[in-house]
Amino acid sequence: MTLLHYLVLSGVLFTIGAATVLTRRNAILAFMGVELMLNSCNLALVTFSRIHGTLTGQVMAFFVMVVAAAEVVVGLAIIVSIYRARRTVSVDEPSLLKN
C-alpha cells in the first residue's frame, strides 16, 4: 500500500465513524463511532509523519490515544450510571441528567 491509500482509508474510517455518531441513538454505539473517528485521525497523523520523515505525528497520535482512553473511561462510567438509573442508554432522552 502506498501512503495515499492510508490517507484514503483514514478518510473512509472517519466518514463511517461520523455516520455512526449522527445516525445511531445508542450512546455506546455513538462512543464507538467517536473512537473510530479518533483512530482514523491517528492513522492520518502517522501517515503524514511518515511522509515528512519526522516523529511529530506519531507522538501526537500517542497523546490522542491517551486522551481517548481517558474519554472512554469517563464516558462509559457516565453511561453505566445513566443505565442504572433509567434502564436506557438512548441519546434521545433530553431529560436524562436533570435529576
CATH structural fold name: Helix Hairpins
% residues in beta strands: under 5%
Largest sheet: none
CA-based shape: elongated
By DSSP, the count of extended strands is 0
Into which percent range does the helicity of residues fall? over 70%
GO molecular function: NADH dehydrogenase (quinone) (non-electrogenic) activity; quinone binding
Membrane topology: Multi-pass membrane protein
Catalytic activity: a quinone + NADH + 5 H(+)(in) = a quinol + NAD(+) + 4 H(+)(out)
Keywords: Cell membrane, Membrane, NAD, Oxidoreductase, Quinone, Translocase, Transmembrane, Transmembrane helix, Transport
What is the strand and helix layout of this fold?
Blueprint: H1 3-23, H2 27-52, H3 56-86
Helix pairs in contact: 1-2, 2-3
Catalytic activity: a quinone + NADH + 5 H(+)(in) = a quinol + NAD(+) + 4 H(+)(out)
Transmembrane segments: 28-48, 60-83
Main location: membrane
Summarize this structure briefly.
Helices cover 79% and strands 0% of the residues.
Explain the overall architecture.
The mean pLDDT is 90. The termini are far apart. The chain is mainly α and 99 residues long. The protein contains 3 helices and no strands. 10% of the residues are buried. The longest helix has 31 residues, at 56-86. The chain has a single domain (3-86), classed as Orthogonal Bundle (Helix Hairpins).
List keywords for this structure.
3 helices, mainly alpha, about 80% helix, Helix Hairpins, about 100 residues
